[in-house]
Amino acid sequence: MSTEAVGWWGVPLAIAAGMMRGGTPFLFVSLGECLTEKSGKINLGLEGTLLTGAMSAYAVAYLTGSPWLGVLAAGCAGVLLGLLHGWLSQQPRVNDVAVGIAMIIFGSGIAFFFGKPFIQPSAPQLPTINLAGDAFAPAVQSVLQISPLFLAGVAIAPLMQWFFRSTRWGLFIRAVGDSPDAARAMGVSIFKVRLISVAIGSFLAGIGGASLSLYYPGVWTERISSGQGLMAVALVIFARWNPMQCLWASLLFGGAQAIGPALQSVGVDSGYYLFNAAPYVLTLAIMIFTCSPKRTLTGAPGALGTDT
Amino acid sequence: MLSYRSRKALETIALPIAALLFSLFLFGIFCALAGANPFGVYASIWKAAFGKWSTFQNTLIRAAPLMLSALCTALPARLGLVIIGNEGALVVGGIAAIAVGLPLSASVSPGITQIGMAIAGLMAGGVWIGIVGALRHYRAVNETISSLLLNYIAIALLNHLVGGPMKDPSSLNKPSTYSLPDADLLGSIPGMRVHWGLLYGLIACVIAYFLMQRTTFGFAARTAGGNIRAARIAGLPVGKLTVIVCFLGGSCAGLAGMVEVAAVQGAANESLNAGYGYGGILVAFVARHNPIAAAVISVLLGGILASGGILQRSHNLPDATVLVFQGLVFLVVLFSESLYGRFEFFKEKPTLVAPPEPPTSPGQESVVVS
To answer: Which residue among A155, B192, B306, B325 is buried most deeply as judged by most CB within 10 Å?
Structure first.
């Protein structure tokens, strides 16, 4: 991006761009994690899912020439990993955090193993929608290049909110996550509900991966994810398990991620890496201030982190 | 006829070994699908990891930091905490070691420098994870998430320091701090290429085992891990226990960072964050948080890591093959956790005693209805 032309105005512009570009993977992964955690399971392995999604999207887009097929492939790869996680983490005496770490290792292994041949070639990218007309400066135009994936994510957030609040299936998921005993009394299969929630959550995380490799930064390398999958877990806590707040939190985190590079482009490059750590420090600080030993967090699913 | 205890012991040994064999089998299928001969791959892994003394030493060099970093997860796990901040503790341990080691190496003897570096690493790692424990106890911040976030903060700190304030201007391609003089590096154990860090790791594992299994402190920690309410009622200082155990775990990982800096890299750079942290979590879970078992598993995992190069060279498999293998082992071992108590063989057969005959008493004779 050419921020030189617009000088210091490039900083807020780059942050706005970061919100929409860098925020897209955050948005999908955090919505996926939100769905998973609402059912009472934690999926720490979304980092692996994100990488596998990014790789499969890039590979399929390159092989078939259609980026949308790539997005679909990323989602399907996510479902496969999600089914594995959902099944394994519900076995007796199996810790879901440990399964998550194993899935990070396994998922990134799979992604790097099969993704090796696709590092060099360039795959077709997803088309973008240009919101700004030709009258604007090129820097402004490049900021307003919006991916349909971002718009889809923005649409999914209120949809998921409505789903949890007003549908029968939403009620099932909330019941399973809040009070498994009540869900059992309702005649709901806890195993099935959690398996499906984890699988669909991973589907979304896979699409988040596709947005990394097919939209922004739009390449496939082994360093493409900077921990977005792991941060999603913190982000969902930050958003209090509320899909709409996941949207705002993703925008915030995407923007925070863009601060370091934006300042670097106008010549402030001391503390570049420290600015990169901004989202993590932010999350930690928020957790320290909002958690309390006397009560559980409002909005936290009751069965989260327990063995039931 | 085996006794109940020995059956239980057999179960805890047989299940992980069976899991390991099964994951080898799965990995073989994976390799076959990828177009490599699985038996050739097994043979290569064996040869690269354990086959020859010279290659086995490579395995041991990788096992040393794994042992130390595994304790960072294994010790707090006894308290019921799932801490995954190994990578962060290792990185800050390495930073602290080099920050103390560079000025010391200019003024005092190598022995003192190394002790100073070790103490710096221990303290830095300990404080790093101690914070996690304190946040857990006093602010109820989830320890898994906070330790995870601290990993990223530590790595950012490392990148910042080696790229700026502590950078050696001559390290262009790979930003690095100034290097320690060769005399101050941690030497090799006589007769081997393996550095003294291996001994640190073994000693730490043994101490951790005795601390947790044979002392009142360990008993108190395990009680608090088993039932926190019972521990509080018994008057145990749960908060202090949490912070101390986290400190000890973190200091082990910090020492791993010091070992990497003082014995392998000679300076702090991004190689510090080479995955020993996440490997340590794997080791701790596979070893079921037993420090002695963690030492053994570390050697096994060290072997797997050491075989990465040969898989690439002689089988044309990408270096990520090792990651896939690690992931498979981890997943299968976790699944095997759910199999404890499922096999009849490992259960004690209940001795069948015939129920006593009900005494016949007058007036209770069976009534014959005619």
So the answer is: B325
Name the token pair of B331: 């997943």
Place of tokens 């990169």: A276
Please check whether residue B84 touches A, CB under 8 A.
yes
- Residues B156, A98: C-beta atoms closer than 8 Å: no
N- to C-terminal Cα separation, chain A:
50
Q: Which of A105, A112, A227 sits opposite B318 (nearest CB)?
A: A112
pLDDT tens-digit series, residues A259-271: 878 887 787 777 7
The single-letter code of the amino acid at B312 is: Q
Question: Cβ of B318 under 8 Å from any chain A Cβ?
Answer: yes
Cross-chain CB nearest to A276 (options B84, B145, B156): B156
Task: Say if CB A93 and CB B338 are below 8 A apart.
Answer: yes
What is the C-alpha separation between B287 and A233, in angstroms, rounded?
A: 26
**Type of residue at B90:** L
Kindly state the tokens that stand for B111: 């022995």
- Rounded to whole angstroms, what are the CA distances from B122 to A302, B11, B68, B161, B349? 38, 36, 11, 19, 48
Q: pLDDT, tens digit, for every residue of B61-94?
A: 999 999 999 999 999 999 989 999 999 999 999 9
Residues of chain B with pLDDT under 50: none
Q: CB distance A105–B278 less than 8 Å? A: yes
Identify all chain B residues contacting A92, using CB atoms and an 8 Å cutoff. Answer: 338
Separation of alpha carbons B44 and B276, rounded Å:
22
pLDDT at residue A2 in the model:
44
Query: Which residue of B lies nearest to A96 if distances are taken between CA atoms?
Result: B334
CATH of A4-290, one of 3.30.310, 1.10.3470, 1.10.10, 3.30.110: 1.10.3470
What phi and psi, each to the nearest 5 degrees, are found at residue A224? -70, -35
Best B142, B304, B326 member to test A by mutation, with max A CBs in 10 Å, is B142
- For B105, the token pair is 């190496």
ipTM: 0.89
Nearest by CB to residue B149, choosing from A88, A108, A234, is: A234
Distance, CA of B69 to CA of B119 (rounded, Å) = 16
What is the rounded (10 degree) CA torsion for B4, B7, B8, B12?
170
Asked if B320 and A112 come within 8 Å (Cβ–Cβ), the reply is: yes
The CA distances from residue B293 to A90, A189, B335, in Å, are 26, 38, 18
DSSP per residue, B124-151:
HHHHHHHHHHHHHHHH---HHHHHHHHH
Nearest CA in chain A to B275: A105
What does the DSSP assignment read for B150-209?
Answer: HHHHHHHHHHHHHHTTTB-TT--SS-BBPPPPGGGS--BPTTSS-BTHHHHHHHHHHHHH
Strand A145-146 relative to strand A129-130, pairing:
antiparallel
Q: Where are the domains of chain A?
A: 4-290
Interval B211-269: pLDDT, tens: 999 999 999 999 998 888 888 898 899 999 999 999 999 999 999 999 999 998 888 88
CA distance B160 to chain A (A): 5
Residues 115-134 of A with CB under 8 A from B: 116
Tokens of B223: 């009680």
CA distance A240 to A249: 10
How far, in Å, CA of B242 to CA of B285, rounded? Answer: 19
Please answer yes or no on whether B135 and A97 come within 8 Å at the CB atom: no
Whether B157 sits inside 8 A of A233 (CB atoms) is no
Q: Given the structure tokens 């004690």, which residue do they identify?
A: B348
